[in-house]
UniProtKB/TrEMBL annotation:
<dbReference type="InterPro" id="IPR050093">
    <property type="entry name" value="ABC_SmlMolc_Importer"/>
</dbReference>
<protein>
    <submittedName>
        <fullName>ABC transporter ATP-binding protein</fullName>
    </submittedName>
</protein>
<keyword id="KW-0408">Iron</keyword>
<dbReference type="InterPro" id="IPR027417">
    <property type="entry name" value="P-loop_NTPase"/>
</dbReference>
<dbReference type="Pfam" id="PF08402">
    <property type="entry name" value="TOBE_2"/>
</dbReference>
<keyword id="KW-0067">ATP-binding</keyword>
<dbReference type="InterPro" id="IPR017871">
    <property type="entry name" value="ABC_transporter-like_CS"/>
</dbReference>
<dbReference type="GO" id="GO:0015697">
    <property type="term" value="P:quaternary ammonium group transport"/>
</dbReference>
<keyword id="KW-0547">Nucleotide-binding</keyword>
<dbReference type="InterPro" id="IPR003439">
    <property type="entry name" value="ABC_transporter-like_ATP-bd"/>
</dbReference>
<dbReference type="GO" id="GO:0005524">
    <property type="term" value="F:ATP binding"/>
</dbReference>
<dbReference type="GO" id="GO:0015408">
    <property type="term" value="F:ABC-type ferric iron transporter activity"/>
</dbReference>
<feature type="domain" description="ABC transporter">
    <location>
        <begin position="14"/>
        <end position="246"/>
    </location>
</feature>
<dbReference type="InterPro" id="IPR013611">
    <property type="entry name" value="Transp-assoc_OB_typ2"/>
</dbReference>
<keyword id="KW-0813">Transport</keyword>
<dbReference type="InterPro" id="IPR012340">
    <property type="entry name" value="NA-bd_OB-fold"/>
</dbReference>
<dbReference type="GO" id="GO:0043190">
    <property type="term" value="C:ATP-binding cassette (ABC) transporter complex"/>
</dbReference>
Length: 364
């Protein structure tokens, strides 16, 4: 019987394959492979110096490839010894400082990258890109007369005007203050999604990555630690570093006994770990569910914790707890409760552990 026919999968717009890179003795990237599909947004995140910008610069052609290769739409455009220059790669670039030409007005800045098109078409394309970012009313303005958010939008329009298959953005919002950043990145997300380009965004901000990305690529010391959807990285981190990168975690330690780890707030089953193994236990603050203990001292209530402080943080409350393990040793934990939950300092609460937000990893 003939094998069922499947439509061929669309080629990734951008592929980096087994890329390694050194600056002198410094190994900045080691064996990194990553592909981005048309219309997909991938955020590169990781601590300072982990190699995010180097990877983006290699994709852009701003850094010469030493090991591995870069392909756009299935065509290898960079490998050791041969490399297409940045302007011939069909990519759009946006940098942290926007890099607008100060002596050109907004329209001319956006028209700049369209010089291969006939004059009439250039204007039409540039205007259409400016409309997409809501800057069509500023065509005669010069960059110095624009706010940071407006400059960022013009930079995005300039990158998108040639309709590149690949967009590369390096910390595009970090020059903006917090309030402006939220609204500009919201608009940018919708503009990028409408553009259909494969987009790689470098950011050091995990929350920003979770907001923008279809997939997140987490780097550490030049290596990919985990690549997946924001939900996968948050709920199924591959190690303690990944678990703690995307939000505060309470850290405890333990020993595996009969497929379980005992913690001061409940037991976790760990069938995949061997008997006697020493483990790190990471518990997200929202994994600790609190209920007021009926009596003042809470004697006899399971998993009892003493409240050290409670703070309202807007939509959630943060409760500082002191819990004791089986040996009577105290541990300080943070619990995050939805809404207004502010038990008195010194009162007692009962703690239930939501195991899906707790992670156990063998100690390294
Ligand atoms: N031109 C260079 N010469 C020498 N070392 C460099 C150069 N550029 C980067 N490095 C080093 O390579 C490593 C990776 O740098 P890279 O800028 O890619 O990291 P990053 O994750 O983008 O950091 P950040 O978030 O701080 O911008 C760092 O240790 C950095 O100091």
């Amino acid at each position: 019987m003939a094998a069922p026919r499947h439509a061929p999968l669309p080629l990734p717009s951008l592929s980096l394959d087994k890329v390694s890179h050194r600056y002198g003795a410094k190994q900045a990237l080691s064996d990194v492979s990553l592909s981005i599909s048309p219309g997909e947004i991938v955020c590169l995140v990781g601590p300072s110096g982990c190699g995010k910008s180097t990877l983006l610069r290699l994709a852009a052609g701003l850094e010469t490839i030493q090991e591995g290769s870069v392909a756009i739409a299935g065509q290898t455009i960079a490998q050791p010894g041969s490399s297409l220059p940045p302007e011939r790669r069909g990519i759009g670039l946006v940098f942290q400082d926007y890099a607008l030409f100060p002596h050109l007005n907004v329209l001319d800045n956006v028209r700049f990258g369209l010089n291969r098109l006939p004059a009439g078409e250039r204007d039409e394309r540039a205007m259409s890109a400016l409309e997409q970012v809501g800057m069509e009313g500023f065509i005669k303005a010069f960059p110095h007369a624009l706010s940071g958010g407006q400059q960022q939008r013009v930079a995005l329009a300039r990158a998108m005007a040639p309709r590149p298959a690949v967009l590369l953005l390096d910390e595009p919002f970090s020059g903006l203050d917090t309030r402006l950043r939220e609204s500009v990145r919201d608009e940018t997300l919708h503009v990028l999604k409408r553009s259909g380009a494969a987009t790689m965004i470098v950011t050091h901000d995990p929350e920003e990555a979770m907001f923008l990305a279809d997939r997140i690529a987490l780097l550490r010391d030049g290596r990919l630690v985990q690549v997946g959807s924001p939900t996968a990285l948050y709920t199924k981190p591959v190690d303690a570093f990944a678990a703690s990168f995307f939000g505060e975690v309470n850290q405890l330690t333990g020993i595996v006994r009969q497929g379980r780890v005992d913690t001061p707030v409940g037991c976790l089953t760990v069938p995949h770990l061997d008997e006697g193994v020493a483990v790190d236990v990471l518990i997200r603050p929202e994994a600790l569910r609190l209920t007021m203990a009926a009596d003042g001292d809470g004697v006899g209530v399971p998993n009892l914790a003493r409240v050290e402080a409670s703070r309202l943080l807007g939509r959630t409350s943060l409760v500082h707890l002191c819990v004791s393990d089986r040996d009577g040793r105290p541990h300080h934990l943070h619990a995050r409760a939805p809404g207004h939950f502010l038990p008195e300092d010194g009162s007692h609460v009962s703690v239930t552990l939501e195991p899906r937000q707790a992670f156990v990893f063998e100690k390294m």
